[in-house]
Amino acid sequence: MSRIRLLSETVASQVAAGEVVERPASVVKELVENSIDAGARKIDILIRRGGISLVRVIDDGSGMDRDDALLSLERHATSKIRSASDLEAIGTLGFRGEALPSIASVSRFRLTTREAEAVAGTEILVNGGKIETVREGGEAPGTQVEARSLFYNLPARRKFLRSENTESRNIEHQIHLQAIGHPQIAFTFVRDERTVLQLPATASLGHRIRDLFGNELLERLLEVNEEASSAIAIRGLIGRAGVSRQTRDQQLFFVNGRAIESPVLSAALREGYHTALMKGQYPITFLFLEIDPAAVDVNVHPAKREVRFRDPNSVREAVVRSIQRALDSNRETWQEQFRGPAPAAGGTTSVSSELVSSGIEGRDRARPSTFAPPFPAPVTGDPTLGTAVSDHGYSALPADASTRTGNAQQFQIIGVLNKLYILMENAGGLVLVDQHAAHERILFEELRRRMEEQGVPTQRLLIPQTFDLPPRDTDWIERNMSILQKMGIGIEAFGPNTFKIDSLPAFLNTSDPVRFMQRVIDDLKSSSASSSPMRLGEEMIAKTVCRHAVKANDPLRFLEIEKLIQDLLACDLPYCCPHGRPTMIQISLTELEKKFGRKV
Ligand code: ADP
Ligand code: MG
User: Fold this and answer.
1) How much is the average pLDDT of 216-230?
2) Among 128, 246, 489, 546, which one has the highest count of C-beta atoms within 10 angstroms of its own C-beta?
3) CATH number at residue 363
């Protein structure tokens, strides 16, 4: 007796629905994508009870005639591709011809649609995959799809749904994705009779971001615009250095207009931000890749959430470069703004004990012509040389002459708070500098420069030391020998699995070279950035610098502070330490005025 049977169309659709329609948010995704593909200018989404009770999507797109409307509910019926070769260059969001029949098979479904010139439209009612009614309908041109009681006929699936709130949030996220991907389309979103979103059509991504998340976020973003090659263009908005979140919710990528998840792109972001990103944080990105459709395969996942790049390396490199360039481009504006001349009238005067005791400080009081530092003068070293000698080692590495710009007069150092935060005034208001983070950034860039150029200065060990390593670590050292040497670590093989170490970077302050090496290996072996030797070197510096930088509460002398600020401003990425923490915080006069109730 034969046991194999063809599944009925309805059951087959329900099987397919398992992949396409995972949850209410997938219904919204598929319907909105259809509306976008139909050329809609405006899309209205309405949900009830997390979309489980109702999802309704209304568009003003092309609409369908009666025959197409009926066909659209058949499996594998699509107007978007015709032959297998079309799969090689997909320009629409849909192409699988699965969404409508899948949704219709797991809900009480209603489709009404009308082409612009048609006198009448069509209305089709489907129940759990069975067409129940087809009649003329009189709606406005465009298409309206309703799915009620999702999974009412698949109790097993229904059980997997989360709370209404969670499902609603997933839907909202999905709508955000579509809205960001298509700023030229107006969107509204109504949840349980409450209007959540009302987004007018706009020409620019920036406006859409502002309408969704407010000006505050927009102001913290940088523009990316990179024509990487004839095959890849990257544009969009990304968070400035140090602007990040604890979740990936705002780390969005679009490939040819389609929101996707991509480990390749996530890794590229990380690499692009590198030291501008705090550990465990995700950058905020709204990044749009335009790629030759033939160079990307979207037919990977039934929900079309993932893509495969034909040449992932070139995509990765292009993204890394575009991020780095955007971060770089911001530097000069930032420095200029930072150094802008202090306001003529409202400048801070240095607080001498005399003023403090008199208790009154007129705002118009003339700025003292010379700045009297509220710090003891350096006891050692000649202050006129500008490099204070200190045993806390800020000047352990004399900075290159070119990093000294002599702009000291454009901001004023007020004092140091809690032996850690340097208080300064600039045109924008109050600036707080974390002296430890600042020092780390300076040392990091200095060491990186040396590593790239002549190598880090080394210090010979009094007694060279040998040590043994397990074979895998041996292999790691052998592969990275040259970069270790550039880093100032004098290491060579001394037998199988044995190494000799006879010098260490001069800046390093360790009494136990072998333990230091073990830590370097442990830290770096696990590092994801082992892709290039330079990267590895950077990683290594970032990890060692921290231990060497000025301790949080080392008191610095005035000249040291001044130099620290100068050197920081001359850095490539002054806004954050090598671990992505901010080095400086600006508090504007407006913010202060608000706090003091002078302004609302
Ligand atoms: P796909 O989008 O992969 O082609 P769907 O099942 O989502 O498959 O839709 C089937 C077809 O129905 C589409 O190819 C399209 O021609 C038509 N269609 C679906 N939704 C709409 C809509 N909102 N407006 C106009 N046509 C639509
Ligand atoms: Mg579709």
Assistant:
1) 89
2) 489
3) 3.30.1540.20
High-pLDDT (> 90) share of the chain, %: 38
* CA separation for the pair 225, 481 (Å, rounded): 38
How far apart are the CA of 91 and the centre of ligand 1, in A? 14
The pTM of the whole model exceeds 0.85: no
The atom number, within ligand 1, closest to the CA of 92 reads 2
- Give, for 253, the enclosing helix (H) or strand (E): strand 251-255
Neighbour tally for 137: CB within 10 Å = 17
Q: Residue 359 Cα, ligand 2 centroid: separation in angstroms?
A: 72
State in Å: Cα 67 to ligand 1 middle. Answer: 13
Q: Is the pLDDT of residue 397 over 50?
A: no
In the block, which residue shows the tokens 């990105």?
285
Containing structural domain, residue 276: 220-329
Residues 88 and 29 in one domain: yes
Nearest CA to ligand 1 atom 8: 97
Is the pLDDT assigned to residue 531 strictly greater than 70?
Answer: no
Ligand 1 centroid distance, CA of 134 (Å)? 18
Neighbours of ion ligand 2 (CB under 5 A): 34, 94, 99
User: Ligand 1 atom 14: the closest Cα is on which residue?
Assistant: 78
Q: What is the CATH number of the domain that holds 88?
A: 3.30.565.10
pLDDT tens-place string over residues 234-259: 999 999 887 888 888 899 999 999 99
In a domain, 99, yes or no: yes
Residue 208 lies in a domain: no
Residue 96 in contact with ligand 1 by CB distance below 6 A: yes
- Find tokens 């830290």 and name the residue: 523
Residue in 72, 111, 144, 298 to alter for ligand 1 test, most ligand atoms within 8 A of Cβ: 72
Q: Note whether 432 and 572 are same-domain residues.
A: yes
Residue 542 belongs to a domain: no
Indicate which residue's Cα is closest to atom 7 of ligand 1: 99
List the one residue out of 539, 543, 33, 565 whose CA is nearest residue 271.
Answer: 539
* Beta carbon of 78 within 6 Å of any ligand 1 atom: yes
Rounded percentage of the chain residues whose pLDDT exceeds 70: 84
Q: Is the CB of 100 under 6 A from ligand 1?
A: yes
Pair 433, 577 in one domain: yes
Specify burial of residue 368 (Cβ count, 10 A radius: 0-12, 13-18, 19+): exposed
Residues 37 and 165 in one domain: yes
Q: How many Cα neighbours within 13 Å face the side chain of 80?
A: 23
Banded pLDDT at 391 (limits 50, 70, 90): very low
